[in-house]
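Teaching soon. Invent one.


***
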Amino acid sequence: MSAVAFRGKLAENLRFGHILEISGKAKNNAESFRISLKSSKHDQYVGLQIVVIFHDDKFFLKNCLNGEWSDEVPRNFDTSVFKSDFKIYIAMGEENFHISINKSHLEYYKYRKHPSLMTIVEIDGDLDYIRQLDHRKYFPYLWPPSQAVEWQRLQFSAEIPMSFRAGHVIKVAMTLHGNANGTFVTRLRNIRDMEREEFHMSVRFGCNALVRNAKNMRKEDHYIFGEEERSGNFPFTDFSQAFVLAFAFTDKELKVAKDGKLLFAFHWRTFDVLPLIAGLKLDASDDVKIVVSQLEHIQMEDDLCREFEHFSVL
């Protein structure tokens, strides 16, 4: 098995009523990949591991408790579906994981320990990319309320199962491929209206511009963008270089850092906006491809996120 392709730290521990939606695509010549739900505090606890073996058309589940792996029980499965964009759903029931692939239920898998120990999602193997790690809630109520995903340009989605609060930081590591004169975009959409964007950051390599805005001004039946903010230097000098962005949420503003330095602070244009945001959405245009390798949620004790910039160091 190859090195870790993606590592995510969830915003909240898994528990009954939660669901993970994981999307990605395997390489055309893939041999295997695996998805592990792990504890951040106990290295020898893996609550669930999904393993896909292509040459045997096998899919199996296992777990590890105190360093001791459970028996592997393979299931026959048409693994070719993973060589196109796939979606795996892992729902937390009262006693079992409920696992579906491309909306078809596949398997139940009984907990060996309570899922609340698990906060890490680790994915390794022969994958082109991971496109989605949405952590949502289906019980006792649906969160976020609006869960539609627009896949036409969207290249990464990372929703969380509760409201944001001041002190929250999201760390995202990524690499860009394709057209070095293209554009990639980060959005924070409103949970009540997916057309409304409370934050929109456009990184435009063709003109070396880092543009910030919000799409929250009503005009007839639609929303339009307000005034652009462009102050500051352009910090993306090498298109192909891997980098980390850190997004720090406070009551009054969103602060963004790269390479350990603050890029800008964007003053929210909607009052009390944090409860209305579901999570990051990344997309691109002009043949730019985004490959995200790490997503980490951190809750700081400081509501103003002072010194959060160190989370943006690669």
User: Anything to note?
Assistant: The radius of gyration is 20 Å. The domain at 143-313 is CATH 2.60.120.200 (Jelly Rolls). The CA atoms of residues 191 and 240 lie 33 Å apart.
